Amino acid sequence: MDTLLTREEMTEAFRGVLSRFSNLIRPLTDDQLATSSRCAGWTIGDVAGHFVGSMAEIAAGELDGQGTEPVTKRQVEARKGHTATQLADELDQAAVGLNALLDVLDDNAWNAPAGGGYDGTLGRGIEALLADGAVHADDIDNELGLGHHPTPAEVTAALSHVAYHLELQGFGPAVLALEGMPEVAVGGGAADAPRISGDVGQFLLAATGRGNPAEFGADDTLNIYR
Length: 226
Description:
The protein has 9 helices and 5 strands; from the N terminus they run H-H-H-H-H-H-E-E-H-H-E-E-E-H. It is mainly α and about 230 residues long. Helix 3 (about 45-60) packs parallel to helix 5 (about 85-105). It is globular, with a radius of gyration of 17 Å.
């Protein structure tokens, strides 16, 4: 399955999500950071701490176990009590290294295994980080109503990431025919495969454990984090 964004589009969107996430969290008050989020057991500060921590570790070359529960817990715990300014500053510093890496990647590196236990290419790994940033920014905005919305490229990358992992997990065959998005065949996508339609934002919530898969005629196998 090909990514829905080109390498150039994904690179630009990833640079953008790093900057946009930093701008989103920098003005947050301590009370806002302490607000519960829709991620079970996590505050807004925890959500931010996880994403910032993952970017900082990856920028430092610490790839092993990224996205696993122990590593995610470590990232969150290490940033408990940090102010919004501290979190944003750490993310900005990580972005310097990550953007420098993007500057020197060639096609061979982009298509090589990502490493660190991630099941995919480096390009797919960057897509996963881009999707993570977009979804976690939405987690923050969902509670605080700051008017932050994902860009079209962020939505497209998130859909591409979800479709890729649904296929890896044996979901389908199905065709994702969501409003305003290119159709994506999952699990072979035969001509008579079921078509899943509807709002792409609500679909992404369901596919990442934040919404109800039944709204799309599916069960919990639609959730890539089940």
